[in-house]
Amino acid sequence: MNLIEGSFGPFRPSIQKTIPLWLAVFLKRRQRCTVVVPEWMVKEKLEEVLEREREDEQGFQPLPYHYFEMSELLFKEAKDDVVDLHLVREKLKDISSVRRNKLQVGLRKITASDPVEIANLCSVEIEFIRGFMRSALERFRRHDVAGEAAQARAAEAAQAAAAHARAGAQAKQA
C-alpha cells in the first residue's frame, strides 16, 4: 500500500508489521488484522506509571501525547486484542485522575512571581488547563466589567451631586 504517509505492506498472515494506528483500526474493522497494543498500554507498565505518578507529587510521568485518545480508540475498535481490558481501562482512569489532581493542586499554587514549569503533559491535561484558564479569564473579565460599571455609576452620582449642589447654590443666590 503506497499512501501519503508512506508505504505499508506487503501483509502476510502471522507476520507483525508496525503501521499507524489509523491504518490498524481500518484493517481491524475489516477483520484483516489483530492489533498488538503499544508497550505503554500493557497492565504491568501502567501499574509502574501509576505508582510513579503517585510517588512524584509534582512531576508527570512520560506518556504518549495522545495516550487517552489512543487508548479510547483501542478500547472501542480492538477490545478483543487488549489483554486485561478492564484492568487496563481502570489503570488509565487512575493515572488520569492522579494527573488531574496534580494539575488542580499546581494551578492553585500559581502566583505572578513564581512561574510554573510542567513537563510531560498530554493533550487531555492541556485541555483541562485550557478550560480552567478560560473560566478564570472569564471571571476576571466579568470582574472588570462590574468594576467599570460601578465606576461609571459612581461618576454619574458624583456628577448628579455636583449638579444638585450647583442648583442649590444658584437658588440661594436668587
- Uncertain runs with pLDDT below 50, 5 residues or more? none
Q: What topology, given as strand order, has the largest sheet?
A: 1-2
Content-based structural category: mainly alpha
Which percent range describes the beta-strand content?
under 5%
Q: What count of helical segments does DSSP give?
A: 5
* Average predicted confidence as pLDDT: 85
What value does the Rg take, in angstroms? 29 Å
* Order of helix and strand elements from N to C terminus: EEHHHHH
The 3D shape can be described as elongated
Number of strands: 2
Helix content: 55-70%
First and last CA, distance: 100 Å
Instruction: Please describe the biggest sheet, giving its number of strands, its sense, and whether it closes into a barrel.
Output: 2 strands, antiparallel
Q: Describe it for me?
A:
- The longest helix has 51 residues.
- With 174 residues, the protein is mainly alpha-helical.
- The chain has a two-stranded antiparallel sheet.
- It has 5 helices and 2 strands.
What layout of secondary structure does this protein have?
Layout: E1 2-3, E2 6-7, H1 21-29, H2 43-55, H3 67-77, H4 85-108, H5 123-173
Helix pairs in contact: 1-3, 2-4, 4-5
Short description, anyone?
This protein has 174 residues and is mainly alpha-helical. 62% of the residues lie in helices and 2% in strands. A two-stranded antiparallel sheet has the order 1-2.
